[in-house]
Amino acid sequence: MANDIRNDWTLEEIQEIYSAPVLELMYRAATVHRKYQATGEVQVCTLLSVKTGGCSEDCAYCPQAARYSTGVEAHKLMTYEDVIGKALDAKNGGSTRFCMGAAWRNVRDNSDFDKVIDMVKGVNTLGLEVCCTLGMLTEDQAKRLKEAGLYAYNHNLDTSDEYYGDVITTRTYNDRLETLDNVEKAGLSVCCGGIIGLGETDDDRIKLLHTLATRAQHPESVPVNALVAVKGTPLEGQERVKTWEMVRMIATARILMPKAMVRLSAGRNEMSYEQQALCFMAGANSIFTGEKLLTTPNPDFDADREMFQLLGLKPRESFKALQKEVAAI
Ligand code: SAM
Ligand code: DTB
Ligand code: SF4
């Protein structure tokens, strides 16, 4: 395994890895995981929807798109004080990363963005890794976020370039890739992954992984979401993703991008501890915790604490705590 960190994976190679017998695939992924990651450590992140609903985009999976009747009400941007209160709750619940999401197509240079900049500064002073997911960004906007203390920016490619148009018509794959480039140019960490269960084929999943794993720099984190099929969205009738599909996706991501944090993201609320344990075996080393993702339910801090105890998992320290340790040596 001399050459694990590669950016030249071919589709054929990925196809072969992805299609291996599942136990072989898990063994290979767990081996890469042991070499590059602290096994038994799981990063604990919390999401907060700072601006919910009323979004102009038509993402077929999303309960926050204004055009679907999902029961999600549109809200204004949360106040600074409320956001800091939630960040403190997250910290007290054991989270080390806090991700603020907004139901925006793209960031605009207005007073709401100024307020988000203040929120980033405030959460940063609590010692949490700060992440945002606000839609498309220009390079200047990415730089402002970086200067405010943002650590990572989440912007998912969701699926393959080929299938993208079946899921979203109000923006293109290239729009997404452009934002990822702007995020990188500003020196922010990239958090980029996808969703399975949208009606895509295995080939689409393989192509998404190929796009991620052949970027000049692998994303720092790769969220793997199982579709949460929300009533009122065009994808409300989609069948639930099977655990083995999550395992295949996570294990392949781990093998292709050994140093990335692979996040077992949406879909955990429907998974048992045993099912989640298989995902950790396959190389997942990050979760979202706290009773809500953005708008849908998620296991709360207590449930996750119990799971960590049962499985003997340890929460990963924030990169800030690690920096302090290094400085003290
Ligand atoms: N509006 C911004 C954007 O689209 O980039 C940020 C928020 S958006 C809700 C963040 C991500 O959540 C999406 O890119 C998608 O991958 C994920 N997501 C949204 N709805 C989901 C669902 N029902 N199931 C799983 N993942 C979902
Ligand atoms: C990601 O990949 N998954 C999170 C986070 N990044 C922003 C969002 C999942 C949203 C699930 C649907 C909801 O709760 O609204
Ligand atoms: Fe809007 Fe983001 Fe939801 Fe798409 S995924 S509808 S851009 S909030």
Keyphrases for this structure?
12 helices; alpha/beta; globular; binds 6-(5-methyl-2-OXO-imidazolidin-4-yl)-hexanoic acid; ten-stranded parallel beta sheet; 10 strands; binds S-adenosylmethionine
Helix/strand layout:
Blueprint (H helix, E strand, L loop, with lengths): L10 H8 L3 H15 L4 E11 L28 H13 L4 E6 L8 H15 L3 E5 L5 H9 L4 E3 L6 H7 L5 H13 L3 E3 L2 E3 L5 H12 L7 E6 L16 H14 L4 E4 L8 H9 L4 E3 L12 H11 L2 E2 L3 H10 L1
Parallel strand pairs: 1-2, 1-9, 1-10, 2-3, 3-4, 4-5, 6-7, 7-8, 8-9
The structure holds S-adenosylmethionine (SAM), 6-(5-methyl-2-OXO-imidazolidin-4-yl)-hexanoic acid and iron/sulfur cluster.
Description:
The chain is globular, with a radius of gyration of 19 Å. It has helices spanning 11-18, 22-36, 80-92, 111-125, 139-147, 161-167, 173-185, 202-213, 243-256, 273-281, 301-311, 319-328; strands spanning 41-51, 97-102, 129-133, 152-154, 189-191, 194-196, 221-226, 261-264, 286-288, 314-315. By secondary structure, it is an alpha/beta fold. It is built from twelve helices and ten strands. The two termini are 31 Å apart. Helix content is 41%, strand content 14%. S-adenosylmethionine (SAM) binds at residues 61-62, 64, 101, 103-104, 133, 135, 155-156, 158, 195, 225, 227-228, 230, 266, 294. Residues 55, 57, 59, 62, 64-65, 103, 105, 135 line the site of iron/sulfur cluster.
